[in-house]
Each structure stands twice: as structure tokens, then as C-alpha cells.
Amino acid sequence: MASPEHPEGADTGEHTFLSHLLELRDRLLRAVLCIILVLLVLMPFANQVYEWLSSPLLAQISATGGQMLATSVVSPFMAPFKLACFVAVMISAPYLFYQLWAFVAPGLYRHEKRLALPLLVSSTLLFYCGIAFARFVLFPLVFGFLAAIQLDGVSYAPDINEFLDFALLMFFAFGMAFEVPVATFLVVKTGIATRQSLAEKRPYIVVGVFVFAAVLTPPDPISQTMMAVPMWLLYELGMLFCRLFIPEETAEESAASDSKALTP
């Protein structure tokens, strides 16, 4: 029989909490091990991966006899290594999200599982699409624009670390920007707003998209437009998904019930 100081329910709760912590530790270790293994496979090809990433810039500066610079002693090693780490995380992302899903799925209701898994998969794919858009569409245009506006007497020779920081920032920015359809769908699905209210606020959203793009991208009109226009189109895609999969009555009822719950 359990003593008053240590009731049986408390022991059960403590045991459950510890089991969750142990499971979380195991899944984090698996995720880290996956990243390390992928990184070890990528390391022999780190230089080739960096050359592939920087090829749009190299194509522009090599036409004028220029080249990239390494201003730090360890830059020729650290820049490809940082890029290899980023690529390893991106390659491991499906497995990382699987570990996350396996940890939280037992605590979700059936209808939550039906919603969470497609959103998780679509978010991952959209992030990949944002990275691909930045590499294959944005970089050739931006570096062509920058190379065309060189000042007389100034040699355009970017540092390899600064280029990598710029590339990773653009990858992250465009990856997040491409999550707009998922964000729009969740806003309507959770009742934060309705399709009608979002449609009425479309002019403000478009302006906000261009402001967001101006903050995250370099101060040139090409990169800002290349981010803002896809974000606007993806917002419209999210609105289309809302019309296809969320009845307006359901969204309005959800918003109404949330407002009643907040009313004292």
C-alpha cells in the first residue's frame, strides 16, 4: 500500500514523465546520428558541393577575369564544411521529421493525426521548393544584376564565407516564404480568420508581403520581387486549398466558437 507521502498516482505520473524523457532522448540521439552519418558521407564531396552552389556567381565574375577570395586562413576548409553541415541537415530532414512525428503522434487524436501528417509532409516539400527556387532562379538573376553594376576601378571578388552566409540566408528566407500556403490553411482551419476576412484583407497582405521581402532580401529590386511575387502566388494557392478543403460554414463556426470561449 502506498504511503501518504508517496501516493501511487504520483509514482505513476513520475514514471510516465521519465519514460517520455527517455524516449525523447533516444529520438534526439537517432536524429543527431543520422545527421552525422550523412555529413561523413558528404565530407569527401564538400568542395564539389560548394563549387556547384557558387557556380552562378563564378560564371559572372569569371567572365571579367575575377575570382572569389578567401580572407581567412581556415576559410577554404570551413566554408565547404559549413555548407556540408547544412546539406546534411536538409537531406536528413525527412528522417528528423519522422522522429518528431513518432514522438508526438501517440498523444494526438485521430482527426489531429489526419491534419498534422499532411501538413508536416507539405511543409517539408515546400521548404525544399523554396531552396530550389533560390538556387536555380534567384541566384543567376541576382548575381547577373550585381555583376552588371560594377563600379569602375573596383574589382568584384566576393569572400567565400560571405557568399555562403548570403546563400544560406536566402535558402532560409525562401524556404520560410514558401510555407505561406500552409500558414494560410492553418489560419483558416484553426478559426483565427475566415476565408472571407482574408480575402477582404488581400491588399494589406500583398503590401505586407513586399515589405517582408524587402527586409529579408538584399537591397536590389530583383531579389525583392523574386521573393514577393512567389509569396503572393503561394498565398493565393493557400486560399485555393482553403476553398477546396474547408467549408466556409465550418471556418465561420470555428471562429465564432473561439470568440465565445474568450468571452467571460
Give me the Rg, rounded.
Answer: 24 Å
The stretches of 5 or more residues where confidence is low (pLDDT under 50) are 1-10, 257-264
Tally of strands: 0
Class from secondary-structure proportions: mainly alpha
Report on the biggest sheet: none
Share of β-strand residues:
under 5%
Helix content: over 70%
Mean pLDDT, as a whole number?
Answer: 83
For the termini, the CA-CA separation is 44 Å
Specify the number of helices. Answer: 10
Following the backbone from N to C, one meets helices and strands in this order, namely HHHHHHHHHH
Overview features:
264 residues; 10 helices; disordered C terminus; disordered N terminus; mainly alpha
Describe the protein's architecture and organization.
There is one protein chain. The chain has helices at 8-42, 46-61, 75-104, 110-148, 160-177, 180-189, 195-200, 202-216, 221-245, 248-262. With 264 residues, the protein is mainly α. The longest helix has 39 residues, at 110-148. The chain is flat and about 70 Å long. The chain starts with 7 loop residues before the first helix and ends with a helix.
List the helices and strands and how they pair.
Blueprint lengths: L7 H35 L3 H16 L13 H30 L5 H39 L11 H18 L2 H10 L5 H6 L1 H15 L4 H25 L2 H15 L2
Helix pairs in contact: 1-3, 2-3, 2-4, 3-4, 3-5, 4-5, 6-9, 8-9
Task: Put the structure in a nutshell.
This protein has 264 residues and is an all-alpha fold.
